[in-house]
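User: Please fill in residues for this 124-position structure.
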């Protein structure tokens, strides 16, 4: 009897929080790669300049150090942003511009087909 009244592990709040954190991490990563492409290009350019400047000081590991710092900074910012949104209690389903994430159609845009003026009168 105790097993049926106890909350299942699928509905526990910690797993829901982990799920929301994972969704925010995925969303922020996609937004960084797609929308923030100019930012990624700028970071790569600055990283190349830093690697060239550090080459005289650290000849063996300048590129590895700069690349690791840039990747680590991006990971840190995405994870901190996802953690902040999760702690604030923002659910990804409540965000209006994330309909692409849930696969729901946008109700404001109805499809208009180019062949409709030619074929719509045939059935009448």
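Assistant: Residues filled in for all 124 positions:
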């Amino acid at each position: 009897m105790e097993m049926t009244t106890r909350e299942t592990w699928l509905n526990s709040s910690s797993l829901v929080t982990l799920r929301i954190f994972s969704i925010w991490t995925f969303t922020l990563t996609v937004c960084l790669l797609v929308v923030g492409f100019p930012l990624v290009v700028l970071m790569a350019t600055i990283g190349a300049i830093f690697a060239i400047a550090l080459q005289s000081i650290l000849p063996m590991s300048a590129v590895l150090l700069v690349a690791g710092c840039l990747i680590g900074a991006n990971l840190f910012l995405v994870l901190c942003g996802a953690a902040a949104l999760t702690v604030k209690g923002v659910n990804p389903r409540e965000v209006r511009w994330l309909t692409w994430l849930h696969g729901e159609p946008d109700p404001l845009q109805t499809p208009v087909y180019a062949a409709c003026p030619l074929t719509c009168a045939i059935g009448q």
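For context: The radius of gyration is 24 Å.
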